[in-house]
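Re: that chain you flagged

S.,

Sorry for the slow reply, it's been a week of failed gels. I finally had a moment to sit down with the sequence you sent. For the record, here it is as I used it:
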Amino acid sequence: KIDDDFFVDGGVFQNLPVAPLKSFGVSTIIGVDVIPDGEVTDMPKNVPLIVDRALDLMLIEQRKRMVQPDVLLQPVGAPISSFDIKSYDVLVEYGYQSVLSLSSKLKQFVS
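Prediction finished late last night. Pasting the structure tokens below so you have them in one place:
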């Protein structure tokens, strides 16, 4: 809250804001979407995890309707909760592997 106004993170509305970047004339956009897109095989065990997964599903659907970047990295393929801070090393490795898998496409944007 700032003065009498309430604000929320822009990710609630558009977690990968490609359209505003294009409207500012950005010619090449490389996006990183860290919302887990993997299938959940186990039912979340508590309310915060259920809410976390519901938010992930909402953002996945929202992503389908948004303007897409030139290259989209989606490093998280497994259903890892936003609350699972113990998976830090796994998430870093996912990010590294994601960059490696698209390295030839990414190199065309580097001079």
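What I noticed first: The two ends are 43 Å apart (CA to CA).

Talk soon,
D.
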